[in-house]
# Entry
Amino acid sequence: MTDVKYFLIETLFAFPLLLLFARIFFQLFRVPFSHPIYQWIAETMNPIIRPIERVIPRWRNLCLAALLLMWLTCVIKSWFYYEVPNLFSLFVIGAAELGLWISRAFMFLLFIYIVMSFVQPRGNALTELVIRMIEPLLMPIRRRLPLFGPLDLSPLVLVFAYVLLTALLFRPMIAMAMGAPASLAFL
# Structure
């Protein structure tokens, strides 16, 4: 029964988190507004985000209102998902879940990017989005990483960074907020 509960919670919150993620990072990575996927997401999310943006303005190219909504969505999801001892712990777990969700989304996009590098489809709207969102993460790594012939190892470094970030930051945050020692997060 609990597996069904967790599956339903994950499924129910995945779509709003995906829309908010796209809204935040399309702006951050300067995806053109003329892009059809971006237009649909903006039309879907603007009625919710615009009133909040009047109170919480953007910071540079980051939509803080959408980020706040994404965090609140993670807090609500965590409230259903975990047995949280207090409100502060719920907010900490929500922040950790937000970090986990964003890093998982980028890993999914990186996987699509790697597959696309073998197939090399061009002119596709989704291909353009994935390249626009992953290339800025890979370029600093490529500048510092020595060449290994025709192999591009920068995605491997990004995966390694994801694993470290998850193991050393997000999982211990959740464990400590739940009242367990951070060392149990590695198990």
